[in-house]
Amino acid sequence: MTQGDGMREVEVGLGQLRQTLRAWGQEHLLAFYPELSPAQKDALTAQLRTIDWPYLGELTETHVRRKPDVSAPEPIEPAPYYPVVPEDPEFYRRARERGMSLIRQGHVAAFAVAGGQGTRLGWDDPKGTFPATPIGRKPLFQIFAEQLRRTEGLYEAVVPWYIMTSAANHAVTQDFFEAHDYFGLGRENVTLFPQGMMPSIGFDGRLLLGEKCALALNPDGHGGSLTALAKSGALADMARRGVTQISYFQVDNPNVRCIDPLFIGLHVGDGADMSSKMLRKVSPKEKVGVFCLAAGKPCVIEYSDMPDALAEAEDETGALKFGAGSIAIHMISLDFARRLTAGKGERLELPFHRAEKKVPHIDPETGDCVSPEMPNAVKLERFIFDALPLARHSIILETDRVEEFAPIKNAEGNDSPESSVNLQIERAARWLEANGVEVPYRDGEVDAVIEISPLTALSAEDLGNAELPARIEPGQKVLL
Fold first, then answer.
1. Is there a domain that residue 57 lies in?
2. What is the pTM of this model?
3. 348 and 438 housed in the same domain
4. N or C: which end of the chain has fewer CB within 10 A?
5. What would the pLDDT profile of 402-426 be if each residue is shown by its tens digit?
6. How do 353-357 and 324-333 pair as beta strands?
7. Is the Cβ–Cβ distance between 289 and 278 less than 8 Å?
8. In terms of Cα–Cα distance, which of 275, 328, 331 is closest to 103?
9. Which domain holds residue 174?
């Protein structure tokens, strides 16, 4: 092929692309094409050719030009769940044994969603690198890695770890794991991959340019994590390893049990496609979604979408009738993940949600960078819990707030580093007291700073295998 032939081929391809963009009212995306460098031209046209325009056009009609109906189908009823304190301890014991057996056989993988930055915390790096523990200041990633190392040692099996990053933090996250030698898990057992992205769409239905040579993009939400698992080859890697169950959690919760034998055993024993953990809500307006049955199917209704009459309703004991709060901890079968990400015609489609946002962009008329003061665009994202109604069967397990929910989301107040540390200390004190250690208190709070490494114990029961002091002194710092 001569250079002239190559130029003509490029011109024909560009002409076809312009025709496609014109058909969908998006020709403005090439407004600055003539002034771009060859590399920038290639990057922009490659980005535009990856878009499924008919599908995006359909989403624009249903989610941008119109607002979709987000109400859950009626009747809405409380979702049943397994209580944290078992009515039948022997049933839970058998379930735990089942879960332990699956771990030993290498059938369980860990999956962390870690696409966020620590901006709200005043932390410029990926949230997973944030120092979270009371004394050692271990980063969140290290806490989970040490849990997995302890699990592998207890069960003499490899637990592969899959981590979904984002376009914004993938390279930094990769460098962080490299610098820490993958925390002793082995590079071959840790897989990092970025989540998918969606174009930001102006209220007029036109896509926005983030730069003259690139679209304005936004992450497609944690509901896109399963698609990202499939596209990255992670699902195929799981199948090759013999994994059948995926333990899903988010990166901002240092108290989460990455691998919980009881949860795994209940999930598999009931033949569930996808299962969830819940906490009792502390108030009707607590900002967590609520597990419900909508028209007989399990779902999560966001706190902001829950009618006040239902949110405040009480049962015969005076407890919240709809008090099962979602904390983003799930078990997902590999088969279900595959069905959710299969080819067109087979895929069980997760719905997109509309979020109105302020999106900086390039004005296609002037080339100026616009920083809007009011929302100007729609970001489309998916939520992982929207897979629940698609499951053939699902269970919910209640857990204890101190034991398993100490999120770090805000710089101060609720769900802050300070509140998380306090919960970590309270849990450590519980574990010590369960093993006969005397712990000091002042004004109802632990009067010491205590940190228990996941390498030492994963539970109060596991801590019984460690060498422990007889008592903790007031004001003492104790790192086990």
1. no
2. 0.92
3. no
4. N
5. 999 999 999 999 999 999 999 999 9
6. unpaired
7. no
8. 331
9. 76-411
